[in-house]
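YM 10:42: RNA-binding protein KhpB sequence, as discussed on the call
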Amino acid sequence: MFTGRTVEEATQNGLKQLGLNEDQVILSVIDEGKRGFLGVFNKKPAVIEMKRKIDSAQEAEEYLQRVITEMGITADITKKAQGRDIEFIINSTDASMLIGKRGGTVNALELLTQLVANRFSTHYINIKLNPEGYREKRKQSLEVLAGKLAAKALKSQSKVELEPMNSAERKILHQALVRNKSIRTYSVGTEPNRHLVIEPLQVKRRKS
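YM 10:58: structure's back
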């Protein structure tokens, strides 16, 4: 709570004590106060409540930096925001440690960072962590894998089930094969074991 002779004065007192600008706070007027008779009798100060606005993206970035530091990794983080999508580009000589086996570490950290961001947000925010261009490299390798497994499914005339992947990686595989009219792709199972299946549309009968 902050007080002053007027709401404006109480506001300035609060901003000064918090070291913030007016656009960084949420202001609620508790009592507008009274000047009193002749400015003396029944005088009552104005009372306001002031809270710092929470920047979801900033909270997420601070959390991410803290976790990376606690992992013993030195990294530079650059934030790239577009609408509700926020990408954190991470540059580090220890990127392999941050990525983990098959992206397991970075995927887990991405999920946790997203939970932090959305805890303070009034709308859903999508977080993407991209250490040393890993996401682009992973996308390329998944697209190559999709082509190979589609060919395998057609050759064997049987469905091929992939290992569990997160929704973003399954989407890459779906999109890589969407124009292939000889197969269909779909996901089965529940998280974290949900995985993609590639299946021929028409199974050719073997000649007897």
